[in-house]
User: Fold this.
Amino acid sequence: MTLQMCEEAAMAAIALQAAHRRPKTRQAQAMLKPLDPDVLSAAIPAFFIGRNSAGLWVAREANGRIGGLFLFKSSAVEFANRQSAPTRCALVFPTETIELDVENRGNPLIVLAEGAMRLLARMTTRPPA
Assistant:
C-alpha cells in the first residue's frame, strides 16, 4: 500500500467519522478567546488544538496570530511547538468543534482535502434513491 493510498484511506475514514459524529443540529463552536492571565502567563504561548466540523485538526494560537489545518493530531501539535520555538507552548484541547478563523498556515493541500471530505460525507449520509 502506497503512502498516497494510506492518506486517502485516512481522509475517507475521518470524513465518515465526522459525518457520524456531527449531530443533526449545528454543534456549538468553541469560543476561542485569549486565556485568562490568572491561568497562564502571557510569556507562555498557548495553542488551541481540536477538530473542525469536517474532522480535520485545527491548531490556532490563543491570540489568533497564526493557525493551520492538519490531517493528523500529531501534525497540529508539531506545528504549535514549531511556532513557539525555541520554548514550548501550552496546548489547550477544547471539547467542542472549533473552526480555523485565521489564514491556514498548516498543510496547504488540506483545503482541497477538506472539500473532498465534505463531499464524501454528504454522499455517505444521503438516503439511497
